[in-house]
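so i finally got all the pieces together for this one. its two components total, 372 residues if u count the protein bits. some of the lines might not be protein, just check the labels. i wanna see the whole assembly predicted at once instead of chain by chain like last time, that was a mess tbh
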Amino acid sequence: MAVSAQRIEQRNSEINWVPISYLWALRFIIGFQFLTAFLRRYVNVPAKIDPNSAQFVGHKFSEFTPHAMWPVQPILNAIILHPGVTYGFLVFFSIVEFLIGVFLITGTLTRLAGFGAAILALMILFGSGWMGTSCVDEWQIGTVEGIAAMIFMFSGGGRLSIDHYLRKYWDGRIKFGKFNIPLM
Amino acid sequence: MSTISVQTKHSVENTAATEVMQTKGSRKAGTIMLIIGVFFTLLTYQVEHNGLWGKLVNYNKLPLITMQGTSIQGDVLHLSLYRPNGPDTYGSFVEKVTITDPKSKSIIETWLPAALSKVPKAAIKNVYHYQKVKAGPWGLVVPLAAKAAVTLRLNTKAQAILATQHSAKITVEDVSGVKWSFESNVSQ
C-alpha cells in the first residue's frame, strides 16, 4: 500500500490552504464597489436621488426592464409605475449598499455581509445583466461580483477584521430553531 | 494515545485530523459555490445574451423600435412606440413616419422633422414615469425602455384612400436611416 512519492507531492500541492489573508484585497474591493455605489448618489452627484432630475436612478430602473429576467422584471415594472415606491426602494437599496460596503471593508459580520452582497449582485445580474455596450459589462460585473461575494459567506474575515475582535465576546452565531447560522 | 493527541495542541495527529476535517468541509463548500456559480453564469449568459446556443446578441447596442398596438382610426394614426433595445445613454430619434397604401405600394402620408418636433405634449401618452417619449427640436426622442402612444392626424387625401382599406404599412425612420415597419389595422 505504499504511496508513490509523486502521488504524495501531488496531494500536498493540491491540499495547500489558501490563507484568508489572500482574500483581504478582494474583500476591500467588493466592499468598495458597494460603498461607492452609495457615495456616488449621496455625495458625488445628489441629482441621482432627486426624483425630478434627469439623472434620477429611477430612470435606470426603467432602462433595465426590457430584458430583465424573472423575478426582477415584474418587480422593477411594479416599482417604476409608482414614483413613491421608486424613491422608497432607492433609499432602501442605497442604505443596504452602504451597510454592506462598510461591513465588508471593515470585516464586520463578514459572512452576513457576503450573503447580502451576493444577493445584491444577483439582483444586478438578473436586472441589468443584458446591458453593457463593449464587453457585456453588466453581466461580467454581476457574475464576478456575486461569486466573489459568495466566497465571504464561507470564509469569513480572518484576522484583519472587526469580527476578529468581536469573537472575544460573541461566537457570531444565531440560533433559529434547529438552524445555527454563523454571521461572522 | 488519541486523547493525549487531542489535548496536545500542536501534535501531528491532531493537525492531520483537523486537515482531513477541513478538507471535507471545504470541498463541500467549494462544490456548493461551483454549482451555484456555474448555474447562474450559464443561465444568465444564455437568457440575456444567447451565449450558449442561438445567435449571440447584445440588446444594448443598436436601437430597435417596435410598434405593436399601432392602429389607424378614421382620421387619426395612433402610433404605439416602444424601444426595448439600444444604448441607455442616448436616445433614438424618430425623424420620419410614413403610411404606405397596401394596394398601390405608394406613400400616402409623411411626417417629417418639422411636423414631429411640433407634436403637442397632450398627443403623446407615455406609459412609464421615468423614460418618456417626447418631441425634440428635430423629431421624436425615444429613450431606452420608453413606451408611448403618439396621436398624429392624417391629411384628407390619405384618409380618403384608407377609407376603403383594412390595413396599411406604417414605417418609422431613425435619424441613422434605420427603418422599422408595422402592418397596422385600419378602422373607420
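Chain B has four helices and eleven strands.
The CA atoms of residues 76 and 129 of chain B lie 25 Å apart.
anyway lmk what u think
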